[in-house]
């Protein structure tokens, strides 16, 4: 079962991974890009060493960059391995998607080939999922296909050695490395393209006699670039108006070249991204935004600007490179969803629940920490990120620091006084353990999935149903009075107690609900603790009943 801290670790790793992939695309040269790729595997993906093996024009692979060990870097950087030896490696071992893992039990046959290699010192593993010093893991990089389609030729291979935690990468780690290799291939291809175009521009400036040849070279690089390219006016009233596009950009947006010349990029960008475009429309600007297709849909792109001149003293134009990043954005959303949602039920997990709840609450003044510590103590189950058991809303400087914040209030007393607040319903299943014990964990999982479905169907759009862990669920329902919240708890309990089909039999579980109320000045953990305590008060006051599962 996933620990409570793992979603936070994944989110932190995901943010660092995004930063490294952004750095890959902003490196100044191909050499810088290659080194950034190697450093990112070590710094963001958590491997001790990594090398980038790049395919040369003759087909062999050279170690172009290395990270993690200066002694190994000096030993193997620049060394070449034959293509035949590399093809043999990539054709054996285990396939993890696009990754190739060669365990030490098979890799010994490669010890004498000509591929530069290294091994991390260490003892033999004691457990099955531990990394062996002689294990090998490769992430092939392929030239990107048109519009993110099928991969092209082999561009290079990222070799990694020993995850820092000493264990074989799991599903999330494998997918992260595979996605990283995909983005690295795009960054390296783009760095090569930029390098070629920059050389063409230098020739335009230095050699007037080679002007026509250089223009042809630029035209071919522009027209046949695998990603979108456009030339737009720079400066004046028509700044940003598109003058010329290549076929790749026309295909990406589903618009003919003649139609593209009627627009500026500001006409095509998503309304929410217009500010981003304006901030990055100058020389050297770079942005990730959405551009409109002819069918009305939008596609995520990475947009980069540089400047070209028609002649030495002639007008200057914006050369805009447009790269399709729709697939990357989709994978980022998938990874973020996995880190913030329960893998069994698909509901928001504990970390996401606390984040949503804390976003509604004002920060407690700092001078209140000492008195609240004395009142609540340091209970590990409710300690927040400050170590005092408090979750502070990001960006809030004080209790009154919200210029546009609608303060969350709670009903007073035990009677419904008409106040509408943010109700927090803590739900604990009764009799669930006996189902697990009698019928097995598969039956228990089926019960949890069905309970999650019934809870989700029983609340309004906009309410949050989360799985806190085990057989505990939490519902956040805003705009309810005390009577509304009690009615909701009764309706949800009546839904839960209906028979559930699990492993071919009908079983029943009960449900206990505790209703807490959130209001500004509380932390997320204090609100959850209040609802939890209310539930146990209800359980203690309820007559003892003998329940049977099934």
How would you characterize the overall build of this protein?
The chain has about 550 residues and is of the alpha+beta class. The protein has helices spanning about 5-25, 30-45, 70-75, 85-90, 105, 170-205, 210-225, 245-255, 255-260, 265-270, 275-280, 325-340, 350-360, 370-375, 430-440, 440-460, 480-495, 525-540; strands spanning about 45-55, 60-65, 80, 95, 100, 135-140, 155-165, 230-235, 240-245, 285-290, 300-310, 315-325, 420-430, 465-470, 470-480, 500, 505, 510-520. The strands form four sheets. Strands 3-2-1-7-6-5-4 form a seven-stranded antiparallel beta sheet. A five-stranded antiparallel beta sheet has the order 9-8-12-11-10. A hairpin with a 2-residue loop joins strand 16 and strand 17 (about 505). Helix 1 packs antiparallel against helix 2 (about 30-45), helix 2 packs antiparallel against helix 6 and helix 15 packs antiparallel against helix 16 (about 440-460). The two termini are about 25 Å apart. The relative contact order is 0.08.
**Number of E strands:** 18
In round numbers, the mean pLDDT is 80
Ends apart, CA distance between termini: 26 Å
* Low-confidence residue ranges: 1-5, 366-403, 545-550
Structural class, from helix and strand content?
A: alpha+beta
Provide the gyration radius in Å.
29 Å
Proportion of residues in helical segments: 25-40%
Largest sheet: 7 strands, antiparallel
List the total number of helices. Answer: 18
Q: Which geometry do the CA atoms define?
A: globular
Beta fraction = 15-25%
Could you give the order of strands across the largest sheet?
3-2-1-7-6-5-4
